[in-house]
Amino acid sequence: MLHVGITGGIGSGKTTVCKVFKILGIPVYYADERAKWLMERQASLVEGILGLLGQEAYTAEGTLNRAWISGKVFGNPGLLSQLNALVHPAVAQDGLDWQERQTGCAYTLKEAALLFESGSYLLLDKTIVVTAPLELRIKRVMDRDGVSRQAVQERIDQQMPEENKAKKADYVIFNDGERLLIPQVLAIHQALIEAAQAK
């Protein structure tokens, strides 16, 4: 079984693409969602976050105080990298455990926003990047999240440029509203099945 990663900048539409793969019977591991789950439920990770950021990192109910954490780490690259050093290994291990439980498929997909930035792509056999024009990405996120253009641009600036991701990827899906998504996904799906059989 191949282990395949899928990523793309905010607003590129990677979640939509993952839904198409899921319809084709491919299991999808959503790394960013699992990271949030682990940050609230894995005792050793919670302890590490409390040690790094203090009690304010969690609400009285024990859920992540996301707004407070964002405000604390995004203006502080050193603190952000310390937080990532706690979270990324926990998510990487959780992803490997999940992959071992998958059976009866040619490949699995790991969806992650920071696939290349975190280095987790090094543990994968193939990578897919979903890309879209910058203006379209900004509009999608503004419409989806009800946020300002500046807020979206700040989030985009935190990520690796899409063209750099595309250069590193084995496959690129163009979600530009002009090229049809499903034929692109089907072509990659077929190529991955063949690659898994050849492995």
Provide a quick synopsis of the model.
With 199 residues, the protein is an alpha/beta fold. It contains nine helices and five strands, in the order βαβααααββαααβα.
Fold and architecture overview:
There is one protein chain. The chain has two domains: 120 residues, P-loop containing nucleotide triphosphate hydrolases (Rossmann fold, 3-Layer(aba) Sandwich); 70 residues. Helix content is 56%, strand content 12%. It has a five-stranded parallel beta sheet, with helices on both faces. The protein starts with a strand and ends with a helix.
CATH fold group of the largest domain: Rossmann fold
The CATH C-level class name of the largest domain: Alpha Beta
The total tally of domains equals 2
Query: What is the number of strand segments?
Result: 5
List keywords for this structure.
56% helix, alpha/beta, five-stranded parallel sheet, 199 residues, 5 strands, Rossmann fold
Question: What is the element layout, followed by pairings?
Answer:
Blueprint: E1 2-7, H1 14-23, E2 28-30, H2 31-41, H3 43-53, H4 66-73, H5 77-101, E3 107-111, E4 126-131, H6 134-145, H7 149-158, H8 162-168, E5 171-174, H9 181-198
Parallel strand pairs: 1-3, 1-4, 2-3, 4-5
Helix pairs in contact: 2-3, 2-5, 3-5
